[in-house]
Amino acid sequence: MVHRIVRKFFDKVTRKQFIIASIVVGVLLVVGVVAFAVAFHKREALLAATIAKMKTQLAEGYQIDLAIGKAYFSGLTTVTLEQVSVTPHDREQLAGVADVSVSVRLLPLITGDVKFGRLRAHNARIQLIKKDSVSNYDFLFRDRDTLLRNQPAEQAEATTINLAQAANRMLNSVLYKIPKNMELREFLLTYRDDSIQQRISVPKADIDDGALTSAVYLNDNKAAWQVSGRLNPGNRQLYIKVHANGQKIALPLLERKFGLRLSFDTVETRLREVYWTNNEFLHIKGEWAVKNLQINHRRIAQEDVVIPDAHIDAEVVVGNNHVELSKESTITVKKLEVHPFIRYTIAPEKTYAFALETPEMKAQDLFDAFPNGLFESLKGIRVAGNIQYKLEAFLDTSNPDSVQFNSDMQQSGFKVNAWGHANVPKLNGAFVYTPYEDEKPVRDIVVGPENPNFISLNEISPYLRNAILTTEDPSFFSHNGFVEEAIRTSIATNYKEKAFKRGGSTISMQLVKNVFLSRNKTLVRKLEEILIVWLMESTRTVSKERMYEVYLNIIEWGRNVYGITEAARYYFGKHPSQLTLGESIYLASIVPRPKTGLYAFNYEGRLKPYIGRYFNYIGNIMARRGLAPPDSTGSYGFYAVSLREALRPDKPAVVDTLQLEAPPTDFEAELEEVRSLLDRIFRNDPEEKETP
What we know:
22-stranded mixed β-sheet, two-stranded antiparallel ribbon, alpha+beta, 19 helices, 28 strands, about 30% helix
């Protein structure tokens, strides 16, 4: 068949066409032979020039000295290097190898690129050393601006990076160094700082026509890992699998260094495809999968978090001035699918975009996908119906106050058939609440008529009810558990402060945190809080009135003072129904920092003058909303507040009026936090923007 096709083809070729084709082929062969001869004749000079170029780039770009004892061709295209070392300036040696032989491709060598064919290396080592705050690998994390600081201005301006091209070069620089065949013997990686030392040894690692096999030993054979895979760098494709023959793979360095215990049975990674679109955007597609991943850290969760099986199918897109995790990416855990999106743009302004979306799914699939140890309070929950979630956020660092945040949970036939450990319906009846102090229980408090301190909502002074709503959660009776405006302002403030200064907690969230969750400050606890609030609010299991009633009966108002009945009696010797406007505003002021409540009073039991600004601020808001009578003086009961005599501080021997009027330094800061919190809450109301 093939013979007939070839014969038919040559029958159609004329003699003239055949002669022309023969001449062209002959010329190409001659050019190829000449080029090979030139390259072969000049290969030593090309090698020397390439090494010199590498030394210069490392020295100028990263302050690294590359030393090579000998470098020569030991075969037609095989280069041998002896006594190679890499040493950052003014640091200890980072890497070295006794001898390494690589076959290189001559044509790429002409352009200055080094592409490996076969590699053999013996007695190679990498040592990461950190003493005090100085390490021999800090150049890896050095800010690019630092590297350019000593360049002339015009040169620095010309160094603007095209991220897509830079990513492509970086990827090529890695892939080009992966040989098709490799023989690695006695490789050692060590890490050492002032208190920790770790060793990873690889006695043998081979690549045979792209097939990778290796064994990795941790800390003198205390653990053995098996590494296998298929490497096809020419097509930009890689697959690597790491396991330990049925045993868990642990990373003790992370535990010793950061307190993070992390282990897994198997991890797999695959670089599937790399390509350009419109000659502008670089697409990198890959996968990552892990089995029986176990994580433990005090800031993540109290218990071990176990993920039996997780898979990430990711697409990274790099453009001229941005890097993004595409919306086409998918995270899969059991039946749960999540499509994340992250985009970081460096010019003309630095911006961050984040999105999360799920397809419509059975609601139970969401809860079944939660890893063991992650949300223990929701363990055992059974739900019905379908849900679909979408979240979008955007931050322009040049204008943080313009931050965007939108969250939407679509539900269809959603209901809870059986509650987990967080039995939300218990709020509708009497139950026992246990407050904690320093993670230790203080005492049990019955929330219900059995407790003489329990008081119904309609028996509490309306001034107190409205003052707390004004300061803590003005839209409590109308929102669904979350206030997006508060979250937006929280994001903007925390970014500007470069620290977590503000949260976006509503009364619903504070109630759930107090009643159902531990006091450990972990990432999981916050997520758990959000989930329980959503369940409680979306199913309307507890009325808003009952939530507020429970809230006022359990929150802390001072040292071992819980609930409004205890607070009214403790500070003023009154029943909650008797609280005045001034007393109510004062009690509202101490909710964020209840243990500082007595700092605001002088020895006569009167409020110190500085807190009068707070009364004016809150009182004006309440008056405009019809929650308090107008007060032309702006005091709103400030001068009528009188602390119970037994709580008043001793009269100073010498009265310094200036000292009496100045609040303690720590309380001044705490009051400023309260004022900022209020400003955040009312930010969406134009007439409430004035500050005290």
